[in-house]
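Hey all, sorry for the wall of text incoming. These are the two entities for the joint prediction.
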Amino acid sequence: MRDYTTQMEAAKREIITPQMARVAEKEGLPAEQVRKLVATGQVVIPANKNHRSLDPQGIGRGLRTKINVNLGISRDCSDIDLELEKVQKAIELKADSIMDLSSYGETSFFRKKLIELASVMVGTVPIYDAVGFHMKELSEITADELFDVAAEHARSGVDFMTIHAGITRSTMEHFKRTERQTGIVSRGGSLLYAWMEETGKENPFYENFDKLLEICKEYDVVLSLGDGLRPGSIHDATDGAQIAELIVLGELTKRAWAESVQVMIEGPGHMAINEIAPNVLLAKKLCHGAPFYVLGPLVTDVAPGYDHITSAIGGAVAAAAGADFLCYVTPAEHLRLPTLEDMKEGIMAARIAAHAADIAKGCKQAREWDWQMSEARAELDWERQFQLAMDPEKARRYRQESSPQDADSCTMCGHMCSLRNMKRIREGKRVQLACN
Amino acid sequence: MRDYTTQMEAAKREIITPQMARVAEKEGLPAEQVRKLVATGQVVIPANKNHRSLDPQGIGRGLRTKINVNLGISRDCSDIDLELEKVQKAIELKADSIMDLSSYGETSFFRKKLIELASVMVGTVPIYDAVGFHMKELSEITADELFDVAAEHARSGVDFMTIHAGITRSTMEHFKRTERQTGIVSRGGSLLYAWMEETGKENPFYENFDKLLEICKEYDVVLSLGDGLRPGSIHDATDGAQIAELIVLGELTKRAWAESVQVMIEGPGHMAINEIAPNVLLAKKLCHGAPFYVLGPLVTDVAPGYDHITSAIGGAVAAAAGADFLCYVTPAEHLRLPTLEDMKEGIMAARIAAHAADIAKGCKQAREWDWQMSEARAELDWERQFQLAMDPEKARRYRQESSPQDADSCTMCGHMCSLRNMKRIREGKRVQLACN
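and here's what came out:
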C-alpha cells in the first residue's frame, strides 16, 4: 500500500512514485527532475488511484505538449457504442487524454466503461452531470448535492475534473460591468452562473473550496480550474472579467498546493494571435507556473467548419509560448456534435499544433522526429516517409492516388523535383529535363 | 495613354493611378496613402499593362494579407481543361492571385487563357518554362535565352515573376559550406544551381540584372525575388546560406527601386514557430520594407497529408509578424499534384491564416467581420452565421447533417448551450435542463 495521498505529496516528501518514473521514461528525463516539477506544481500527473488501466502521462513545464479529446453522451447523442468506438479510435490516434462531457442518459455507466478501457487520462466536468445525477432542475440542486457529483466522479476513477471555482459573486460583478459581446460561453460557467443567479448564493466550489480539496486528495484527482469567463469571440478576449477570474484561480492554486492537491489552469477561448503569448504569460504568472490547459484559442470567429484549423493556429502559438495541454477542436465546432471522421481531423490538427510547439520549445524528441522525416525525404525514400508520417495511411493513400512518370519523384514537381535533381548533381550526373 | 512606366514611377511623380485608386477603395484607405506606400516600395500593385481583365490588388504594409494559389500543366498533368476549372474555382473561393507553374506542354496557350480569364493577379516562374520554351536541355540554354523566356512571360501579361537572382556564385559558396539536410528544395533555385554547375557561369539574372529590370519596366511586372536557398526542413531553417541570399536580395531591391521596378521578396519554407517572427523582421530589414511573400512556413516536416494545416500555422504567425502575402499549401504537398478538392482545402486554410493575421494586425475590415459573426452567434441566428461563414456551404451542410432537439441550439451542447441559457437569463427566464 502506498503511504502518500497524492503525487504532489509524495514529490514533496522526495518519493519518486512509479507514476513519476513512468513519466520520466516517456519524456526522456531523469525521474528526479520530474519529481521536483511535481513537488512545485509545475507538472501534474493525473492518475486517480481508482483508474487501474492508466498508463500515466505528465503535463507541464519541460514535458511534451499533450492533447485532449472531448466526447460523451448527451440528449442529442445517446449512442454509447458509438462513443466507445470513438474512445478506441482516439487512443489509436494517440490522444493523450479523453474528457467525458456526458450530460444526459446513462452517464455513470458510460464513465465506468470509459475508465475501464482508457489507458489515457480521463477528465470530466461534474456540473454537466449534475442535473441528470440528481434528476432535478438546476436551481433545485443544493450546494452539497453539487459536491456529491464531484465526489462520485472522483470515486469512479476520473484523473482530472474541471471545476469552475473562479466564477464568484465578485467576478460576476466584473462580468456584469464588462461590455461583452458573447457573454459566458463556457457551458460549466454558464450553469454555475445560472445556479448563482437563481439561488442568490455564492459559488459553492469557491465558498467551500476545502471540501473540494478533500475529495481531490482522497483519490488524487487533479483539479482543473475552469475558465468560466473565457472569451467566446475575438472582441471579448483579455477583458476585465476574464482576468479577474484568473486572479482568483491563482489564489485557489496556492490553497490547493498547500493541501498537496495537483492543479491545472484552463484558458481561452477565442483570441487574436497577438494576444495569445501575453495571455499565456499572465496565466503562468498569476497561477504560479501551474500547467496551462487551453481550449483553442480560436484565432478567428468566422470559420465554422474549419475550427480545427483556427484552433491549431492558436494552440500552436499558445503552446510555443508555454501552454502545456491543448484541448482538441473539430471541424464540427459551433455546428454539431463531431462524427468519428471529425474527431480524427480534430486530433490530427491538435497533434500538429502540439508537435510544432514542441519543436519551437526545443524538445529533443520532437526535433529528432522531424530530422528522421527530412532524411527520408532528401533520400526520396517514400516507404520510410509514410512510416514516419503523423498519419501514415493518409500520406500513403495520397501518393498512391497519383503516380508520377518518374517513380522516385511525385507528381507535384515531377521531373523538376529539386530533391531528385540535387541528388543527381551530387552524384555527378546531369539533370535531364527535356522531353524524351 | 498613360505617361508613366510603372506604378512605382507614377507614385514617385505623385500621380494617383486608377490602380492605386482601386486598391485604396478595396482596402478602405485614402488613395494618397496607397500612393505613398507604392512610391517607397512598401506596397506593390502587380498590374501588367497587358493584363486587361485584372481587377488590381495591392500587397504590402498596411493592407490586408493576400493569398496565392499555384496551378499549371506539367508532364504528370497535362489536362488544360482541369487546370482552367481550377482557375475558375480559385477565383470563386477568393484567391487573390494565381501562379501558373506550368512546366511542360502547351504552356503558352495555357498562360494566355489564364490571363484572359483571371481578374486576379497572375504570377509565373519563367525558369520552369525554359526547357519547354526552347526545346533544349537545361545546360544548353544560353543566358540570353533565359531572358527570352522572362520577356515572353512579361509580354503575355504576367503581373509578377519569380526570379531567383540571389543564387549567385558567392551565395553558392555559402551554401556549399553550410551543412544542409535537404539541400536546395526550391525548384527554380535547383534549376539555376544546376545550370550554373553545368555551365560554370554566374547566374545571368544576377549578372545582368539591369536587363531583367528593363523587361519588368516595359510591362510593369513586379519582380518577385525568389528564395532559391529557402530551407526544406526544420533543421535547415535560418542558416548562413539562406541569410546570405537574403542580403543579396536586399541589394537587388535597391537597384530595382532606383529604376522604379516594383519588388516583392520571397521567403521560407520549413521553419520552427519561434524562428518565424525573427525571419520576417530580418527580411523586412534587409530588404528595406519590401512586401514579403512566404511559402508556408511549414512548422513541422512530419505531417504530409496535412501541410495545409502546418502552413496555416506558419503563415498566420508570419503574417501577424508582418508578412504580406501567403502562398497556399494543400494537403497534397510533398505527395502529389493537388486535386480540385485539395485546392479548396488549401485556399480555406490560407484564407484563415491571412484573416487571423489581419485581426492580429488590427485591420478594421477583418475585425468587423468577426464582430458581425459573433453577433449572429450570440443571437443564435443560424442563417446569418452561414452567410457570414468563410465557407457558407460547409457550415450549412455540417449543421443540417445533425439536427438538435432544441432547434435554437446545435447538437454540440444541445440543451446545455451556454448562449441559449445566457439568453434565457437575460430575458428573465429560468434555464430548463431537467429531462421532460
